[in-house]
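User
Class, as today's exercise, I want you to study this protein, comparing sequence with structure tokens, and judge whether sequence predicts the tokens.
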Amino acid sequence: MAEFVEKSLEELLPVFEQLKLVQLFSPEEVCDFIKNCRDNEYKLCKQTKVAKDFLAYAAYLEEKLDLIVERRKELKFLHRYDQIDRPLKHKCAHLYRICAARFKKMEYHNKEIAFLHNAKMHKLCSQAYTRLLQIYAHLPENHVRAARFEFFDNNSAENARTLILMGLRKFPQYIPLWVTHFEIELRYVARLLERREFLIKTNDRSSHLHSKNNEEIKKSFDPINTGDDEFLKLSLAKVVFEMAVKTIRERGQKAGLIRQFIKIAEDCGEFTKELVASMREYMSIYGLELEEEIDQMEVF
């Protein structure tokens, strides 16, 4: 048992040395830190392992990470992140992963994901969501959480679409999946248009471009004038809308779903005007506006 404990402490030895060297911790604090880490490591090596020992150790390291951040601000010391903060974060992530894998409870997976998300360890967080879905794919909200993380935090539209489509194959009547899918497609187009605007501004500053060429580039980068690009014409969002209204059977749910689609589209900007108009027209043609009025009457 002792050799495993010492091996684990040796992996953190550079962290202890750096904390003492740069004076983020006093020598006494470093000694206490080492002692508490050793005590926690011994608890993990017990024959009968319990989840609370892993969680307590991870929580202790998180407290030290928060303290290090505060000390950095006080001392205005912004160096040696890779030698101090990163190893401690990876140690915490390792503890949460072992706890989730060994005891297989969703709350432990959620703790792991919450830590990785707060620590901005997006690659490991993506892997944690994958492990979560391997066990708890029967819960549709997990597909929504994973897809939203991949798109909004990990900036991976491809992974987000994959997760959403996996969820929709299993739960075609689950409205939040359709809402998330629709929002992802619109937000992705919004990102592309923002990049276009950034590129035209950058090209405006370039001295080697002629004024005539600038006008042509501006026209091609116009966020409203999408030309023949079907993708920027929101073709995917339209497909999602059509599939959603065909799949959702109950009229009240369908009306509520379209209202959510309209709200999301309106929040995205001017480029969705035609899409919003077509969705409102659909509600009018099929009498779904009546469902909206009934819902409002029930609320009052």
User: Anything to note?
Assistant: The CA atoms of residues 224 and 271 lie 6 Å apart. The radius of gyration is 26 Å. The longest helix spans residues 175-205.
